[in-house]
Fold this protein.
Amino acid sequence: MSHRPGRHFLQIPGPTNVPDRVLRAIDMPTIDHRGPEFGRLGREVLEGLREVFRTRQPVVIYPASGTGAWEAALVNTLSPGDRVLMCETGHFAALWHKLATRLGLAAELIPTDWRRGADFAAIEARPAEDRGHAVKAVCVVHNETSTGCTSRIPLVRKAIDAARHPALLLVDTISSLASIDYRHDEWGVDVTVAGSQKGLMLPPGLSFNAVSEKALAAAKSARLPKSYWSWEEMLAANASGYFPYTPATNLLYGLREALAMLREEGLENVFARHDRHAEATRRAVRAWGLEVLCAVPEEYSSSLTAVLVPPGHDADRLREVILERFDMSLGTGLGKVAGKVFRVGHLGDFNDLMLAGTLAGVEMGLELAGVPHRQGGVQAAMDYLAAAARAPGKKAA
Ligand SMILES: *Cc1c(COP(=O)(O)O)cnc(C)c1O
């Protein structure tokens, strides 16, 4: 492999580009995780995370990928054989369902066509007929990273409340936290699951559970086996900024820096930036004459866009050409959309010119791979970005 000049474009929807500030923060000597300096770091990041989850409740940090936090959310709140309701919005929802089934939960899956968010009418209907309250939790992926569709969590909450059902609401925000508006407390979520390597701009290796009072109460009687994932010892140690086992110290340095960056930009501005890049991307896709996988405009994802390639063309071949020729990684199609879509990640530490470069790579790739399209996608995105820059805060028509 010869040297490739310039920066690699890592435009998959996570892991995302890690900003230099975060890399520099991580590049420090590891300290004693039981010493006084660590306690300050621990308290600072545990407190700072609450702002991002928009919660006053505790947030737990695991040295694990997001999948670990999925498991933690389930084993801390549920018992063997408990019924849980899940929404198959795409590949990640299906994986969470598989994990729940392996843990011995009776996990029911509400299907979708993978082109929209969770079906809240079905969510309301199912608990409404569950008069004995056998369903203990409803699990939803906020931003389905395999499809680029978001689920409207306040409507899911409303559906459960309309059925007057006491089920817990567990939400995966692994690819939406710090990219798309999300409110753990206000939306009445019981456990929010998140990860470090997407909107939080960190390398992979940390994941999170934000925990409501109701979830903490459920944890008291939950009987699924757990030890490493147990909230109890974790929260006891966290009270003074420490962890019950060795934490990922250097990633916590990075987290402290990432939280500072989010605070400096302001979460509202972070969300507006993601919305803008997503809209510019969709305009490019339409100008190319291609189709966005998400079929419901209210549920378009602001962290990534999944793009359908015309029938008879292979999305992975296109990705291969783009990687070889332009040193850019795009997201592959997962599960039942494998080969049919490619995904453009536009989340994390990302700006207008990075998006323009990304879309230029896609447009040239379409040409080189012989995928039928029209030119002018990059131009359409540039027009939108320039209009947005002229009238900041206003949505361009
Ligand atoms: C990335 C992702 C996961 C998986 O997380 P890992 O860190 O790979 O374990 C789960 N859910 C969603 C929505 C994701 O985007």
About this structure: The radius of gyration is 21 Å. The chain has two domains: 20-263, 266-390. The longest helix spans residues 267-288.
